[in-house]
User: Fold HhH-GPD family protein from Hyella patelloides LEGE 07179.
Amino acid sequence: MILTYDTTLKTKKQVTFIPQEKIDWFQAICSQAFGQPAVVLDTNVARIIERFFGIEGERVKSRCKILWQAAETVAPDTQVGLWNLTLLDFGAKVCTARNPRCSECPIPERCNWYKSILNANK
Ligand code: SF4
Assistant:
């Protein structure tokens, strides 16, 4: 596959020639290689957002507008590439699919999923 990049692109909304299922790759490349504010929404990031905000995205996360909106809202204005890598690592090592390590999470008190677990155990 050959992709051409326009380094002036700012958001995925301008990228109509990239298939939706490849948008994560494109966003990751834009943020890592070109320092653009392009967030990534893979299954790890989607899981963190769903748990933290207590929302349930659509089955195909990469097509879920609510999750994309949330991901773009919480991303910082600068160093989005670093932010993306941090979330990917966090989802792989702390907020894991099974048995998340909430005791290692820096902000469990603000997480809806964690609060619901605490309330269920009262
Ligand atoms: S508190 Fe637990 S579930 Fe919530 S974001 Fe942190 S690791 Fe994930």
Observations:
- The CA atoms of residues 24 and 41 lie 6 Å apart.
- The chain has one domain: 18-120.
- The helical segments are 23-34, 43-53, 65-74, 80-93, 112-120.
